[in-house]
Structures
1.
Amino acid sequence: AQSVTQLGSHVSVSEGALVLLRCNYSSSVPPYLFWYVQYPNQGLQLLLKYTSAATLVKGINGFEAEFKKSETSFHLTKPSAHMSDAAEYFCAVSVPNTGFQKLVFGTGTRLLVSP
Amino acid sequence: ETGVTQTPRHLVMGMTNKKSLKCEQHLGHNAMYWYKQSAKKPLELMFVYSLEERVENNSVPSRFSPECPNSSHLFLHLHTLQPEDSALYLCASSQGGTGQGDTQYFGPGTRLTVL
């Protein structure tokens, strides 16, 4: 069965520091993987997605993620954190053969950015 | 309006009340979703509609009743809820079909409190 695990419910960084949010997946078939961000009092917004093309995926707001099959990972990074990056981040994997897009989400990682 | 809208944004109801949540998408999508977001738990998929036909009912109690009158509107009718049903209810839409690589677009959610 498809699943994702996000290590660390909270990650704290200083403004300007590297952001690294971890996601490991389990999938019986080549996966489709997603990172979504949720700002306070808002819904989720897609940051980026891996759909079996390039393994390094660039998203919005300077974020990128690298698909590593050997490590079953899809970690999210940003070279330099900004205060506006403070939010909750969700990794998700798509379940195949359902006739519609069914996503399984991780429990989320809250990113805290200090000045 | 653009994107996915949800009303009301906040709702407080007693266990014997009947209320409805409304979702509207202005993106021309064919699939719509209801999710439940509770603290410290992954997003839970509740219902999926594809071309106005319900294609997923994820073991949701019958006190939640969805309705999709057309591809732009989705409702969640609530009755005799329990306090543990208090959560953020998110609506999403996507292009539809079997595209695992689809992007889901989320509304801002309805914060529901059951007293």
2.
Amino acid sequence: DAGITQSPRYKITETGRQVTLMCHQTWSHSYMFWYRQDLGHGLRLIYYSAAADITDKGEVSDGYVVSRSKTENFPLTLESATRSQTSVYFCASSDPTGFYEQYFGPGTRLTVT
Amino acid sequence: DAKTTQPTSMDCAEGRAANLPCNHSTISGNEYVYWYRQIHSQGPQYIIHGLKNNETNEMASLIITEDRKSSTLILPHATLRDTAVYYCIVRSYGGSQGNLIFGKGTKLSVKP
């Protein structure tokens, strides 16, 4: 399917487990982003990537790891999940020629018990 | 912290224009005004952006005051599907692509 997809859409995991959230886009956009959204905080940037093999930290990167070996994929890994990482996670992508517009995926709702 | 101030919530009658204000009194000369919206449980959606001139697209119009300290997003004929949280964001051109800072936004409720 064309666009930006996230998987899984819902995930329940236990404290201390490693979990990876997937993001895939079909536009060949160079920029990709991960945000988390919590009640009372709005969306906050976790990591972003300007191109394959180029990543940088956002506002709330502690406890998260990203990689980008292929332009179309940008997985987000929680190395040892904590309850404070219970949130809705959104992936987005953007092309430099459309600098101003970020396209968001449908989100992954993660619960850490 | 977000550089913008928006009302927490607004109501609008279906078919009427929805005018959503945003204050950005500390905006600098190279910063643009962006608007996104988020319909319940979905990812945010880009609406429009501008620097100093008024802008219009198929979704909305953006009116920026001459001193650029405030702006208004106008949805000309609001429908029930426009019920969402609307975010006004100030962002520099050419800065880090990561600097899209979302505040709390305005919850717009369109009523029949």
